[in-house]
Design brief:
Bound molecules: pyridoxal-5'-phosphate
Oligomer: single chain
Mean pLDDT: 96
Distance between the termini: 28 Å
Order of helices and strands: EHHEHEHEHEEEHEEEHHHHHEEHEEHH
Helix content: 40-55%
Structural class: alpha/beta
Length: about 400
């Protein structure tokens, strides 16, 4: 069965093999070297001055950020199930918050955020998603962050980029905390979260006098982590296996930058073992371009099949199809053709389904997903099969 859910994503053979090596003890020189490579790779990828890796799913990094940076009031941007989570985190920790909520296909606008900040001057943190995975929607995160900083540079901007990191290039100039998760575009098992930090975020973390204001606890105490991770170790037992896999991910990306075929890079054991900035960056340029082509070609095919893309501003990480009557049936039927895509959640559970584009998806797999979709429409009597979906996908992909 082809796993085409927007997280977890399939783990390629070269990463699986890297993670199948004997477990290292985390307090060793050997592991410190791996950790240093992982840190370097993340900093190069995110173009941010500092990064942290935490042993938790993505939500752990979301909670850690709210605890660390919010001392007065949080403004939560809620355009879906993940945006809703900011408020739940605040409520669970007795942190005051206000929220701007939108239907899951409708992005928040820059002016709405600014208006809220003007209405309530006690807000010290704004938290939002770059891609809200509940609807597969891209928010104008960079633009919103820029206008927040222009209005008041002391407001901390926290961006959940769990389904944007590794998907597309991100402008992190005005973002203080950028959150990632291992199980999405990194093609790693679930269990590790990532934080990219700005200079301003570092100032707050390191200001020991200000710590009394915050509720940063122990396990998710970013000051303790920062101290350790700068020395290439972690405060608590590190997810060593996933971190070894992360280094392999960077090697795969760099190999693509050096011209290796995608299919080979995903299975190959002879990947470049010395990482180099320019080559890694050209590998990311390849990966971002590949993902964008897959997403755009899939979207063209969706329109050609007379289906509706759900969000008003679709993200590149996934394609979300709305079919109010039969979304659940279409998704179920695709399984009979060997393709597993994700349902919706909550109130739109039965009305949408989501096709993943994150990670390095092979063209022949992505194109079969479109065929499975078209075959399912035929089987359910929605639209007769004529091969237009697959043809449109391939024509668009190779024209881009
Ligand atoms: C997957 C995801 C998360 C993290 O969820 P976890 O289950 O805690 O890993 C957070 N935000 C977005 C947008 C996601 O897609």
């Amino acid at each position: 069965m082809l796993l085409f859910t927007p997280g977890p994503t399939p783990i390629p053979e070269s990463i699986r093999q890297a993670m199948a090596t004997p477990t290292l003890h985390h307090r060793t020189k050997e592991f410190e070297e791996i950790f240093a490579k992982a840190r370097w790779g993340l900093k190069t990828m995110l173009k941010m001055p500092e990064v942290l890796m935490l042993a938790s799913s993505g939500t752990g990094a979301m909670e850690a950020s709210i605890l660390q940076f919010c001392s007065a009031k949080l403004l939560s941007i809620n355009c879906g199930k993940f945006g809703e989570r900011w408020g739940k985190i605040a409520a669970a920790n007795s942190i005051p918050y206000v929220e701007i909520a939108r239907e899951w296909n409708t992005p928040v606008e820059v002016e709405d955020v600014l208006q809220e900040l003007k209405n309530d001057t006690s807000i010290d943190v704004v938290a939002l998603q770059v891609c809200e995975s509940a609807g597969g929607m891209r928010l104008k995160a960079e633009e919103i962050a820029k206008s927040i900083k222009a209005y008041n540079k002391n407001i901390v901007v926290i961006a959940d980029a769990i389904t944007a990191m590794g998907v597309e290039p991100l402008d992190t100039t005005n973002i203080d905390v950028l959150i990632g998760g291992s199980q999405k575009a990194f093609m790693l098992p679930p269990g590790m979260s990532i934080l990219g930090l700005s200079e301003y975020a570092l100032t707050i973390i390191q200001d020991s006098k200000s710590h009394k204001k915050y509720r940063n606890g122990l396990y998710f105490n970013l000051a303790i982590e920062l101290n350790n991770q700068r020395k290439n170790t972690t405060a608590w037992t590190a997810p060593t296996t996933i971190i070894s896999g992360l280094v392999k991910y960077f090697e795969i990306i760099q190999a693509l930058g050096e011209g290796m075929e995608l299919d080979s890079a995903l299975i190959c054991q002879n990947l470049p073992n010395s990482l180099e900035k320019n080559r890694l960056e050209s590998g990311f340029a390849y990966a971002y371009n590949h993902t964008a082509k897959l997403a755009l070609a899939t979207r063209e095919a969706i329109r050609e099949l007379d289906l509706k893309v759900y969000p008003k501003t679709p993200a590149l990480a996934m394609s979300t199809i709305e079919h109010k009557e039969q979304a659940a049936k279409i998704r179920q039927c695709m399984k009979t053709y060997g393709v597993n895509v994700a349902a919706g959640q909550d109130h739109i559970k039965e009305q949408i389904f989501r096709i993943n584009h994150m990670g390095l998806v092979r063209v022949y797999e992505a194109s079969f997903v479109v065929n499975a979709l078209e075959l399912s429409l035929n089987a359910l009597g929605i639209r007769a099969f004529d091969g237009r979906g697959g043809a449109t996908f391939l024509r668009t992909f190779y024209a881009l």
